[in-house]
Amino acid sequence: MTENLDECYEVVVDLTKEGGELIRERVWSEKTVEIKSCEVDLVTETDQQVEKLLISSLKSKFPGHRFIGEESTAAGIKCELTSDPTWIIDPVDGTMNFVHGYPNVCVSVALWVNKIPEIGIIYNPILELFFSARRGQGAFLNGKQIHVTEENDLNKSLIGYEFGTSRDPEKMKVVMENMTMLVPLVHGIRSTGSCAQNMAMVALGGTNANFEFGIHAWDVAAGCLIVTEAGGVVIDPAGGPFDVLSRRYLCAASQPLADELVKMIKQYYPERD
Length: 273
Known about the structure:
Layout: H1 5-26, E1 33-35, E2 42-44, H2 45-61, E3 66-69, H3 70-74, E4 86-93, H4 95-100, E5 106-113, E6 116-124, E7 129-134, E8 139-141, E9 144-146, E10 158-160, H5 169-182, E11 188-190, H6 195-204, E12 209-213, H7 217-220, H8 223-229, E13 233-235, E14 248-252, H9 255-264
Parallel strand pairs: 3-4, 10-11, 10-12
Antiparallel strand pairs: 1-2, 4-5, 5-6, 6-7, 7-8, 8-9, 12-14, 13-14
Helix pairs in contact: 1-2, 6-8
């Protein structure tokens, strides 16, 4: 790529904060809400405006780069990851939270080059949590380096968990069975309502692991780098390598903890991105 990654990082940090400002200004205001795939899969004008801000500004600065965005994909643009520098963007991760004024709302932006994550940013502008990572350079919260917890015992773990935006009966059955299995075994289960924030919590050491079926590339493209740069692991929930387009992931503070979960959880395979 002709642009250096330092320049890419500096540009996207400023743009992510600008997009976050729009979210912060509007989180407790009246919103225009539309339904996408089902009654719990929502989009607001802020989702669309933040994505437009990010893509148009990055495209102007880096015209040779490609883009995968949640709202542009929903509008019919094909989700395709090539070896070209590709920005993968979720403008408002936690739209349901945003609609209700619940403060777990993030902008998630990642740059992948040669199908490898190089830059990852997850920004919650309401709680002022700015997670960032560069490949090989560690993970940070508000400029301070962070690390996953050293706890490897599932019985002493706090697990992030979500129900997601699909009400597919088969998926819901798997989600409920896995939760019922986990509740008596772990310290507790927490749901933030944001996949990106769930992954960031593992990187921070606030939770020990989380997994989800049915998410999309834009939900996990930044978080996977932040978790691994914080010392954690990101894999497929069945134990294989992580695939950003598979709509499945498991992240954990350690490989032994991830392996323990793989042995226990019931699997679900959604259609790929």
